[in-house]
Design brief:
With 347 residues, the chain is α/β, with parallel strands linked by helices. It contains 13 helices and twelve strands.
Length: 347
């Protein structure tokens, strides 16, 4: 990385400030996970609406589907490390002849740094970080301990000369019609009588964020005293755990794709979940959420729902193992009941 920065420092020239119009072609780079893609959607949607330029997105095989909507992107390039070498990818990007290339990554990525350094574009945007010399223009990286990741992404609006209002911007994600209809049919078959629908998601990106079979059983038992319908949500790999938790008392909803899984989010009235990508989808539909977060050896603010009412239990230990049910109950019940009784009065 040091040799790369020295190369750029020697060869790069500071550019004038760009004028971006409807005719401009912009490439946004956002690799890695689903959540990383979701938090960039407010920026892309606002740029698409306010400027109307052609937007390309270089995404990973894990998150590309998030951008598969004309309201976000015109074309998506899926980077598969096993297939695309860096040289091949550089040529592919250069063939697009983009006016601007934007590195949306919060942290320094070696792969993205090489792409930024060796692709041809008059303007290259990024956050002020260790590889800042690679860019022609930068914006300040807001304090990660104080500012939500979405707000940090919205800072890029300054380079595009547009006003991005955090009060109106939001995560953007639309499940496919077929996924939505399937989720609606699932609820209709399991709960023909409409009541408040309480969703409990047990799956997260790692075993460290699994709260335990016994704890989820206690949660279901506690909620059984309320007049509501309950639903367990999980990824296919956690089906065995969900089966033990449910014990045939409540239905289990699991689907192989993120789109199908998230189609249930607009249907539930409340979600209990560990920190995971669906936290951002909850924001799309403004659903209340109670979350369990692992905040281990970091000062960064949690990736909470951007536009939903929420409360949390946050542990600074590496797992949720020592987060007791009573600890969660004491904070969760008052938050849930505020929503529950308000919702019940309007039913």
């Amino acid at each position: 990385m040091l040799s790369l920065l020295l190369f750029v420092k020697k060869n790069a020239k500071q550019k004038d400030f760009p004028v971006i119009s409807k005719e401009s072609k912009i490439l946004f780079i956002r690799l890695n996970r689903i959540g990383d893609a979701l938090v960039t959607t407010p920026l892309l949607k606002e740029i698409k609406e306010q400027i109307g330029c052609k937007i390309y997105v270089l995404a990973s095989s894990q998150n590309y589907f998030v951008f598969e909507n004309q309201k976000l992107a015109d074309e998506i390039i899926v980077y598969r490390k096993s297939i695309h070498g860096i040289r091949t990818l550089i040529k592919l990007i250069n063939d697009l002849e983009c006016d601007v290339i934007v590195d949306l990554h919060d942290d320094v990525s070696s792969t993205v740094s090489y792409l930024i350094a060796f692709t041809k574009s008059r303007y290259k945007f990024g956050l002020k970080k260790r590889n800042a010399k690679l860019y022609t223009h930068t914006v300040n990286k807001l304090d990660t301990s104080k500012h939500h990741v979405v707000d940090r992404m919205l800072e890029f609006g300054k380079l595009f000369g547009i006003n991005l209002n955090p009060k109106t911007a939001n995560i953007f994600f639309e499940p496919k019609y077929s996924s939505t209809k399937s989720a609606e049919e699932f609820i209709k078959n399991n709960y023909p009588v409409k009541k408040i629908l309480f969703g409990i998601n047990i799956s997260a990106g790692s075993e460290a964020r699994f709260w335990g079979v016994a704890n989820y059983k206690l949660l279901i038992s506690e909620l059984s005293s309320y007049d509501l319908n309950m639903l367990l949500l999980c990824s296919p790999q956690d089906l065995d755990k969900a089966t033990k938790i449910s014990n045939n008392l409540i239905p289990i909803y699991y689907r192989p794709t993120f789109d199908e899984f998230c189609a249930m989010i607009p249907i539930v009235d409340f979600l209990f979940t560990p920190d995971t990508s669906i936290v951002h989808v909850i924001s799309v539909f403004h659903k209340p959420m109670f979350g369990l977060y692992v905040k281990y050896k970091t000062n960064d603010i949690i990736w909470s729902p951007y536009k939903s009412e929420y409360d949390t239990i946050i542990t600074e230990e590496p797992t949720l193992e020592n987060v007791s049910f009573d600890q969660v109950k004491n904070k969760f019940i008052p938050f849930f009941e505020k929503f529950y009784f308000q919702k019940e009065r309007h039913e």
